């Protein structure tokens, strides 16, 4: 069975400009190392501002350009609503939690 490298990112509770940029840099470094599958676990994230939203979209574009896959999990209700109001909730592959993602075998 082939194993796909997977990077799971656990951002800080405030997904704003600086912290979101850190996540983007982490993912860009991983892309450079050949990793193509990414999961951003929002379990600890309490808030996301417009800068964080813009960077999240930029991360998605980075990953898609590299022909990778980006998944999100454990979004709280305010962040889910933000994605819906921005009209991009269906742009992302979203799982209820990390266990649900792992059940798919996408990172295996």
From TrEMBL:
Organism domain of life: Bacteria
PANTHER family in UniProt: ANTI-SIGMA FACTOR ANTAGONIST TM_1081-RELATED-RELATED (PTHR33495)
Source organism phylogeny: Bacteria, Bacillati, Cyanobacteriota, Cyanophyceae, Leptolyngbyales
Domain STAS: 18-108
Pfam families, sorted: STAS
Organism per entry: Trichocoleus desertorum GB2-A4
Entry-linked SUPFAM superfamilies: SpoIIaa-like (SSF52091)
Designated name of the protein: Anti-sigma factor antagonist
Signal peptide positions on this chain: none
Protein family: Belongs to the anti-sigma-factor antagonist family.
Gene3D superfamilies the UniProt entry points to: STAS domain (3.30.750.24)
